[in-house]
Write a structure and sequence with these properties.
By secondary structure, the protein is of the alpha/beta class. It folds into 2 domains: 63 residues, no CATH class; 191 residues, Rossmann fold (3-Layer(aba) Sandwich). Helices cover 27% and strands 24% of the residues. It is globular. The N terminus is likely disordered.
């Protein structure tokens, strides 16, 4: 079933040049895609899985991995990886690496979803560039975020533990093209986001806090308030892993009329999930703590939904797998239904 209604895209209304856009979508864009051989993508190097490209992996932390892997070979266990390939050097936390690689769109997506992504690229090129903004949480932390798109439905994007706001770069234009205004935040201690005066120092310099102390939910609440100040009548949140736990916690402290819905991507479990307000979409994969996420789902209040995808990728890592298209379609469908 096609989950995307292309009639809802950002090409309605009095838009100058709409016929030129239709021409580009019909003729120019497919031609350019067929000619272009590279596109930006997120890669995931999971221990025990197979490499997607020829690569040399080296662990910068434990130095236990010094492995040249060819396409199809298995990757060894390692908490952090660095990839070097053909003179280009790319680094990333964990096994997730941002790089340029070849993709044949037709093999990964159905025709309707390919059109959606092509439209997202075209619309994002015509919209103003993302604006970096700052706002304060109630405890004094100063939060950095990227504000993109237009529309009355705002979506806060709350990253996982090893990521930053930039980890949503591939999803932002798709959400903007679907009519959502996005606010991708850096949690306190990441990027230019500052901690609150009473916060303990983040551990390991990565913006992670001691177990039992989780101020990140205040960042989510501040982001929701900021979008409402920007004129968004509806606000939802998509949070991954730690960002999902922070989102769920924020939903226990917010008024019901202030939130439209939340998407929890393999969210860190919270004890008070039953008090979380608003419609909720729980997402996980079969191989990633399915039992734990199921318990959270069962304990949550209605309305709620649960989506279980193939594979074992965790939270935002799903966007680096073949389940990426199904996930973003499900997110957009859910967000449109909770307006």
């Amino acid at each position: 079933m096609n989950l995307i209604n292309q009639g809802d895209m950002l090409l309605s209304g009095n838009f100058a040049g709409v016929h030129w856009i239709k021409f580009c979508l019909t003729f120019c864009v497919p031609f350019c895609v067929s000619v272009c051989s590279a596109t930006k993508a997120m890669m995931q190097f999971d221990p025990g899985t197979r490499a997607l490209v020829d690569a040399h992996l080296h662990c910068k932390t434990c130095h236990k991995l010094d492995q040249h892997v060819r396409r199809g070979e298995r990757i060894s266990e390692c908490p952090r990886a660095e990839i070097t390939r053909e003179g280009g050097r790319f680094s990333g936390n964990g096994f997730r690496v941002v790089k340029w690689r070849r993709i044949r769109l037709g093999r990964r997506m159905n025709n309707g979803w390919t059109s959606m992504l092509l439209l997202a690229g075209l619309v994002s090129s015509m919209l103003p560039a993302a604006e970096t903004v700052f706002f304060e949480a109630e405890d004094g932390a100063r939060i950095e975020a990227d504000l993109s798109g237009e529309g009355e439905h705002g979506v806060v994007l709350a990253h996982g533990g090893m990521f930053t706001k930039d980890s949503w770069d591939d999803q932002v234009p798709v959400l903007n093209a679907a009519g959502f205004r996005t606010l991708a935040i850096n949690f306190r201690g990441r990027g230019q986001s500052t901690v609150a005066p009473d916060d303990p120092p983040p551990e390991r310099g990565r913006g992670l806090y001691p177990v039992g102390f989780s101020p990140h939910y205040r960042d989510v609440l501040a982001a929701i308030a900021f979008l409402r100040e920007q004129g968004c009548d509806h606000v939802s949140v998509v949070g991954g892993s730690i960002g999902g736990g922070a989102t769920a916690t924020a939903m226990t402290a917010i008024a019901s009329d202030q939130i439209s819905g939340v998407v929890l991507l393999a969210a860190t479990p919270i004890q008070s999930i039953g008090k979380a307000k608003g419609p909720k979409l729980f997402v996980t994969t079969k191989g990633d703590n399915l039992a734990g996420i199921t318990r959270q789902f069962e304990a949550a209040s209605n309305p709620k939904e649960m989506l279980v995808l193939k594979g074992s990728a965790h939270a935002q890592h799903i966007f680096a797998t073949s389940q990426s298209d199904a996930l973003i379609q499900a997110i957009i469908t859910f967000l449109k239904n909770v307006k």
